[in-house]
Amino acid sequence: HFLVARFFKVKVAEFGVGYPPRIFSIRRGQSIYSLNLLPLGGFVRFGDSSDPEAPDSLAEHSPWVRLLVIAAGPIMNILLPIFLLTIVFMIPTKIPVTDVVITKTAVGSPAQEAGLIPGDIIKELAGKKINNSGDLLTGVQLKLGDLSEWIIERDGEIKSTNLIPRINPPLGEGAAGIGFVDARLRIAKVEPNSVSENIGLRAGDLILLINEKQINSQVDMANALQVTADTTSGKPSSLSILRGGEIVEYQFNPVSYNKLGLQLNVNPEFNRAEPIWNAVPLAIKQIGQILVMGKNELTRMVSGAAPAALAGPIGIAQITGEVARLGTTPLIFWTALISLNLAIINLLPIPALDGGRIVFVLLELIRGGRRISPSVEKLIHAAGFAAVIGLVIVISINDINRIISGATF
Residue 131's pLDDT is what? Predict the structure, then answer.
């Protein structure tokens, strides 16, 4: 808003971070730069913005200039995610490659009706390769309510089937109606007369679970076995593996990893680091997928299939802290999501928001240049602002209650 206004010589009275009361301010030229107490956003205040007779006011300028000034904020909120996600795709990132194995299918679910069974390895969904469960979850969310092709591997054979992930599935079943695990460890060799041979393990077995805990590395396996030895007091533990397209479960007495007598192969990770000419279109594609998933989630909320998961500034701060602990790349991705979310919200035709102000300019253009009364527009925006702040307060109270209860996103 500020830069475009300055370009068209629109007077900017104040550039503020946060909402009043004011904590600190400094004047440079015609503008005040302020830091304010309430961390609920920011604002650009135009001098005499509603008076078309005031020199250099926003209202003095043509509708097209006003439209550009008002729309500049949401446009920047759209461009920023493209820039940030381009960086994400350019940063070298290790992507784990797993076998995503179906462990169960719910009765009457789309997966069961499509013929999927426990032991199937999901290879592709809607034409996209499935490297890990993250790819699977994204693919399912993108295809909610739509027919999608699933490519699976069953006992070494590749098969294809179609299903429609449900928008409103029964509680605990998920859209497709499957349980699944990421599997990365495959037994390369079993030592003769070892504990593993006595258990019944064989070379080629794909390790899935120990006591229902997913195992993705030798460290995971060693830790799970150590916990088993420390906590089961001699009671048998369970080990689930995939062999010949079937899930087999073994019972064994607690034993440490180095006494198992087996060698493991680990599915590799691949390093993703795209050049900028690939990263930009990938970033744009990612934003398109985010919008589709957002639309699908909104549909689920409206239909009652999902709770209204809303967060205000306090909730966003909580989530940001949680994401920051995951590393730089997730934090950049989260920042892009916030910016895209702000763009969408600000473009909604709600009084006081940019979308509401754009509506008044468009009405003026439709009416052949006849403006809505400035006093009426000002009153409508004031009412809209009060409603938005009221909603923020209600959501913030929920955010505080969630933090007090120890819950997280």
Answer: 92
Query: What distance in Å separates the CA atoms of residue 110 and residue 117, rounded to the nearest whole number?
Result: 11
Helices and strands in the chain: count of H runs, count of E runs: 11, 16
Q: What is the DSSP secondary-structure string of 392-408?
A: HHHHHHHHHHHHHHT--
First to last CA, the chain: 32
- Asked if 36 contacts 22 with a C-beta cutoff of 8 angstroms, the reply is yes
Segment holding 304, helix H or strand E: none
Evaluated on CA atoms 396, 397, 400, 406, the torsion sign reads negative
Q: Which helix (H) or strand (E) holds 285?
A: helix 276-303
**180 and 173 Cβ atoms separated by less than 8 Å:** no
Give the pLDDT score at 230.
Answer: 62
Residues 6+ apart with CB under 8 A from 40: 18, 19, 312, 313, 389, 392
Going by C-alpha positions, the residue among 121, 95, 268, 137 that lies closest to residue 206 is 121
- Residue 79 DSSP SS3: helix
Specify the residue for token string 């549909």: 299
pLDDT by 10-residue block (mean), the chain, 409 residues: 92 90 91 88 77 77 91 94 93 89 94 94 94 92 92 94 91 90 91 88 91 84 75 74 92 81 86 91 92 82 72 85 88 91 89 90 88 84 87 86 81
Tokens of 356: 């509401």
12 beta partners: 46
As a residue count, the chain comes to 409
Question: b/e string for 241-271 if b means 16 or more Cβ within 10 A?
Answer: bbbeeebbeeebebbebeebbbebeebeeee
